[in-house]
Hints:
By secondary structure, the chain is an alpha/beta fold. It has helices at 6-18, 33-44, 61-64, 74-87, 105-133, 140-146, 156-167, 183-193, 199-211, 217-230; strands spanning 24-27, 49-56, 67-71, 97-101.
Amino acid sequence: MVPAGDPTRDTVTQLGGLLAKGDLVIDGGNSRYTDDRVHAELLAQGGIGYLDCGVSGGVWGRRNGYGLMVGGAAEHVTRLMPVFDALRPEGPRDEGFVHAGDVGAGHFAKMVHNGVEYGLMQAYAEGFELLEAAEVITDVPAVLKAWQRGTVVRSWLLDLLVAALDNDPELARLRGWVQDSGEGRWTVEEAINHAVPAPVISAALFARFSSRQSDSPAMRAVAALRHQFGGHAVEQASPSLSSPSSSSPQNPH
């Protein structure tokens, strides 16, 4: 379980020279599924097996078990089932483990899982912001907490949001800056490749991009256009000229 990309490629290459015929490698990181095929072919030259395993559960997996999505040959999966059974959550195997298909299928399934996660997180975040903005709501954390039982939007992600609000009711100690691991991008790319509409996941990914812009060039362009065609007020970038401008547009319509 090492970072995707060069670290994983280098590790697989090194293992190919160290392991022996009949050994078996599992990539439990977040590699792109297309890399799995390359890694499997490389190791197969030395008779070494390969499985890709998408792993979900985050830092809580050690306590609750990890959701596992595996790709590779059936005989390799069968051989490693004692390992997978030890790592997955308690309960029915098919509710925490899947042999998703051939090499690459495990990481493809995890990629889509993470894309769905992007959308769910963004929906909760937008709901939180709307509750915060509404004067009629006097206790936002309490509202979200009341959603934890009996409602159709209850989930573990909601539980985690409520836990975060318990420590910081307005999330005032955090910056609204969100990184993406790459899997959301890959999910959107695969949606395009398969002509599958994925507006929610795409919007959630783009929202993360927006979070990193302190002053969006695109929104500056929108402000300029509104000022040009309609004379709408704009705010100057200079602190000394921060009040709305009342200058006339060049070409009002």
